[in-house]
Every structure is written in structure tokens, then in C-alpha cells.
Amino acid sequence: MESDIKKRSLDLHEKNTGKITVISKVRVKNSDDLSLAYSPGVAEPCLKIKDNPNDIYKYTSKGNLIAIVTDGSAVLGLGNIGPHASLPVMEGKAILFKEFADVDAFPICLDTQDPEEIINIVKKISPTFGGINLEDISAPNCVIIERRLKEELDIPVFHDDQHGTAIVTSAALINSCRLSGRKLEDLEIVLSGTGAAGSSIARLLKDMGVKKIYGYNIDGVVLKDKYDSYSFLIKELIDQSIIDFPNNLDNDSLEALMKHKDVFIGVSVKALVTKEMVSSMNKDPFIFAMANPDPEIMPDEAIEAKAFVVGTGRSDFPNQINNVLAFPGLFRGALDSKSTKITESMKLSAAKAIAYIIKDEELRRDYIIPSPFDKRVVVAVSKAVKDEVYRLKIYRK
Amino acid sequence: MESDIKKRSLDLHEKNTGKITVISKVRVKNSDDLSLAYSPGVAEPCLKIKDNPNDIYKYTSKGNLIAIVTDGSAVLGLGNIGPHASLPVMEGKAILFKEFADVDAFPICLDTQDPEEIINIVKKISPTFGGINLEDISAPNCVIIERRLKEELDIPVFHDDQHGTAIVTSAALINSCRLSGRKLEDLEIVLSGTGAAGSSIARLLKDMGVKKIYGYNIDGVVLKDKYDSYSFLIKELIDQSIIDFPNNLDNDSLEALMKHKDVFIGVSVKALVTKEMVSSMNKDPFIFAMANPDPEIMPDEAIEAKAFVVGTGRSDFPNQINNVLAFPGLFRGALDSKSTKITESMKLSAAKAIAYIIKDEELRRDYIIPSPFDKRVVVAVSKAVKDEVYRLKIYRK
After folding, report:
1. Residue in A12, A63, A84 nearest the CB of B127
2. pLDDT score, position A89
3. Buried-exposed string A284-295: b where 16+ CB fall within 10 A, e elsewhere
4. Residues of B carrying an active site annotation
5. Is A59 a known active-site residue?
6. Catalytic hit among A62, A93, A261, A347
7. Which residue is catalytic, options A6, A15, A29, A38?
8. Alpha helices, DSSP H only, in B209-260?
9. Does residue A368 contact residue A180 with C-beta atoms inside 8 Å?
10. Contact, A74 vs A136, CB < 8 A?
């Protein structure tokens, strides 16, 4: 990061003393205002809600308000910096929700990293919120927490670090296929990183029709004979045939795995990809090198090695795989349709909506992903998500 | 409550879908904005806070942000309506904080009424907040929770239902003395209601110099021979000589207790005061009949019975004892002075500040309490509170 950005960011945060403020939507200038917004008038909406719990969505801000919940255990590329130091990121996420999709979002930074306690606290504070966005929680806790909350709460729960990347990566893959004329079901994909984000990517791609995904992680290529040593996340991917075992591999290196494959998707800071490895892939490979801040391979190198498209997580290169394309519209659509959950099919709808923002004739190798500031994105994503909620009939009555 | 207010309040809440919104204090219109407010620039304030925890006040909204925490167990006059139905009240409180004192406040409605769990959750969510305002929690839990949080957190904690009323009642008593030429130390006071609010009133009045306070509650007059049957709250008041035992009482009725006393303070819905009881008091008694929505005695009756001043909790009579005179300025002062707590002496300073808004020559029997919309109040209260924090040196370094 440039030192200029560092200094300007500190200045911005200090000058404004943070980034969020909680303001009133109604006027409170005289005693009549006070008697309506507060005592005694406020007793009426309270009694309505007491008699009909769903009226909370009618008379309060709950229906447009989500909690951004973190334990500070896996913040950006900074690691386990704790709940206090994570607050600037959560405030940042809150203002992105507001600016991109008019979703009210509030940071809840929890001073505990015990998953059972996090689950319990989120359940107990949930009356105020119409949705829960989990953020920057380390694996496997993030998966455990999200699954339990999805089961036990009747509002949408979404862990952005898992699924946001998955949605935008899927959109990138759809458009790479459109531009190159290939089909998803013909692709053989190398997935570097089989943690929370990698798992979610693999699941979504399989749901989309991809047939072959091979895993790579810190222990090398994911292989059947290592099964017993794997965490439950990887075991699940294997048991559910999400991850496939490669045949006839020279050894269990990333180099060996990438030979004659079509796509590289990297969501691990550990892997390094060379030009030679890209050259060893099938013709016109797609490279999504999303390690942050340093991609697994720099875009210019991948292009030199004949990559067809290259995407990274960075805004200073083309084709940025940026979660902000997904989460604002996803929650906008879920809240507007009164959805009680976020399903795989809603994520898939979101991915397709992001992809098809770009028309056939506009697609280019350096433009397979729309800009985060393209105002059509949130509209398209929220509409696609809403349509899916209506189709599934998973909305609040 | 008039049906007109009921309908207009419902309309207001429905039209705006609640009363609060969370907005951004900084601009996020292009990728440069994004790189400063979010990734990658936001890493810098995170790292600063990690290295120096107090920097959280410099780079985030924490220092101006309080949680309004309830379990929905004692909401307005509605009782135990639970956390969901309490949300309109908590949103209302939040906008009062914002409108009266520019304090950002956010409702946390907890789906538990177990005091230990509430204490634990508030501690665990505290990283986001610069202060905790407990609200509408029933006694004795509210006292237990507040005491423990005051001990265990390093940010101001305040239960408004206990102390807000106490501060404003104290201000009313100060001004009743100023106007009548009497002295606090000469007054004999009847306190009807010895729960959370009553206890706090009694403590603050004693700190202010009142010598004699007699208690009355659902079990009759507070007497030594009933000691064993009392809750720990009342036992403490007796043990610490906050509540005094009356001499030579005919019986343990409120009627008997009020004879020849100077002040009636009512914070219980159970007690009824008649004109005869007011007439039996010493000359020119002060009557603060704060039961809501129906005062222990209506102001016109008390005046007919020769009360010198009458205060109630209602906005449609003179001398409204309204907490909004206290809590906004109290938190404004505590946050501005970086106070780590709220002390008895800060409450006392707030009470005096509220009282002395009204100049000697302005005081009248129907104007011993300033209007909630008097803009001088929050300025005076916050300054008085700040001065006390500086004097006590209880601020964050």
C-alpha cells in the first residue's frame, strides 16, 4: 500500500472520528413531536408488536437494519487483531451497505472468539436486526457459526468472506465462458485454498454446473489417501463430491496439479503461481489470483503466459473480484422480499445477475466483471435475489 | 392517551418504518474514496488501534456512540412486553439522544431476562460503544446489572429509569426550596416507591443534604420490624441510613406517614394521595406525583389542598419531571470529558445545573423545572458533568 493512502486514510478517520452516525428519520422539535415519537404515543406501536410480532417490521427500523458481526479473528489481511482493532473495517462495511444499497448496517464487534458464545450472543441481540452479516471470522468457526445461526434464526444470515467471493468469482467464470465460447461443464478447475472461502466457491461452482474441481492447500493437492488428516470442512467437500480427486498426477504439488487444467482460482496467501505453471495449463486458461494484497501471480505475467483472462482482488488491475458487487444487492433483495434466509440458489441468481450486467458485445478480456460503481449492479442483483425468494416462497407472511 | 395521538403515532412509525437510520460520515463515491474508507487504507487505523487501544476513540465512532440496552421487562407503563415490542421505545430514546445532545445511540434489545447473561452480553458487545444506557429493565435486575457493569467496564454505564428521575426530581426539590425559602436539610420527605427509581432518588437526596426520608411501598410504611421481609434493595437503604424510620406513627398507612411532612415524592403506581392527605402535611408542601400515566394525585386537587408546588411526569401539566432534561446532557458531558464512569457527584452536578437554568426572579410555583426544549439545559448539564469529571480526574488518559 502506498504511504500516501495510509496517511490519507488515517486523516480521514481522525477528522471524522469514525465513519458512521445514527440519526433520526423523524422530527423531534416540540412536545407534539415528542408525544408521537416517544412517550406516550410510542406505546401504540409497542402494543401492536406485542399482539402481532410481525408488526415489528411495520413500525420499527428492523426490516432495513443488519448487524455486521465480527470477533476480529481474521480481519482483512491483518489476521487476528481482535474486536477493537477491527472496528474501522466494520464501520467501513456498514457505510458500503448504506451507500451501495441503502441498507442500514451497524457494527457489532464481539469480545469473544468462542463459537458457541458468538452464536448465543447473536441470537440474543437479534430482535433489533433484520439480517446478520458475519464478517472476518476465522475458519472453521465462521462456518460453524453461520450454519447454526441459519438454522436457529428466522432472518437472513450471510458470511460475506465465504460467499461474497464465491458469488463474484462465479460471475467472473460465467463471463469468461461467454467470452471464450466455452462451457462450465467442460472446465477442469484448480482451487487453491480449501478453507471457508474456497469451500463456498467450490459449492457454488458445482451448483452452477461445473463438473471437475481439484483442491490444493497447505498440505498439497487434496487426495483420497490424506482423508483422515483433513478438517471437517475438507472431509465434507470430499464426502459430498464437491472436490474431485485428480488422476495420474506426477506428485502432489500445485505445479503438477495445474498441468492441463482450464482454470486457476486462488484464495490462499500461501500459493505461488509461475508463468511456467500457467503455460502448462490447457489453451486460453482463466486465472483468478485473489490472494491479497499480493496475487498468486501478477496479471502481466499471467497474460504473458497466455492466460485468456486474469482477475485479482485488487482495484488497480482490471477484473477486480470485489465482494461489494454482491453483498449490498444480496441483502437489499433479501430484505425487500422479506426473505427469512439466504439460499445457495439466491447466491447463484446474484452471480448470474452480476455477470449479465455486461452485454455480449461489451465483454472483453479485461472487462468480464462490472465496476463496483456501476449503478446497475445493485439493481440487478437485488431484483434477481427477490425473484428467487418469491419463486421459493421463503418470505415472511 | 387520546386516540388521536395513538393513531398519529402509529402513522408516523409506519410511514417512516421506524425512527433510526445509520448513515456514513464520509464520502464513498469512487474508488479513491473506497480505498481510504475501506480496503486497503482502512488497515492503517486498525493497526494503530492494535498498537494503542485508546486510538479506537481517535479513529472510530465509538467515542460518541452508546448502546441503549433493554430486556423489555419493564417498558414504559406497559410492563414486561419483551425485547421485540420494546424496540419502538428504544428507537425513540435513540433519537432523543441524537436530537438533544448529538449523541449517537443504538438500540440493543436482548432476548433474555437473565441478569448474568445480560451482563455478559453487554460486556462482550462493548467494543463498539463508548457508553451503556440501560433502559426499562425491571428491578431488582436493573440494579444488579448496572452495578456489575459499572465495576467491570471502563466506559460510562447508566440506568436511566433509576437515575434520570432522581436527577430531575432533585432539581425540582432544589428549586422548590429556592422559591419557598426553605432548606433541604429541614425537609421531612415521604417517598412512595422504594424500588429502583425510589432508591436512586433517596440516595441522591441524601447526598444533596436532605436529612429525613421515610419510605412507603406495597407493604406499607418502611419500618424496622419488617426488616427481615425486605428485598436487598430496601435492606441496603436501611443499613446505609438512607431511609429513616418514622416516630410515633398511628399506623403504617401512607395517610399516617404523610401527616406533618414537607414533601411527597411518588414513583409507584400503587399509591393514591387524597386532598385530605395533602392538607395534613406541614404548611406549603411540595408534591411530586410521578406515577404514569395517572399521578398519585391530580395537580388541581393538590393545589386546592394548598400544595406549594406540584410536579408530575406528564407534559400536559406544569413542572414535568422529564428524564430528557438529564440523560442527553449527562452522556454528552461524560463522552466529551472522556469519563470512564458516571458517579453520584456527576448526577448531583447535573441536578444543580438543571435547577439553576431558571433564575431566581423567573422561578414560579408552576415553573420550577425548565422545558425539555430549553436549549440551555443540555449545554449546562454537559458542562457541569464535564467539570465534575475533570475535578475527580476520572477521565481516560
Report:
1. A84
2. 98
3. bbbbbbbbeeeb
4. 38, 93
5. no
6. A93
7. A38
8. 232-239, 254-258
9. no
10. yes
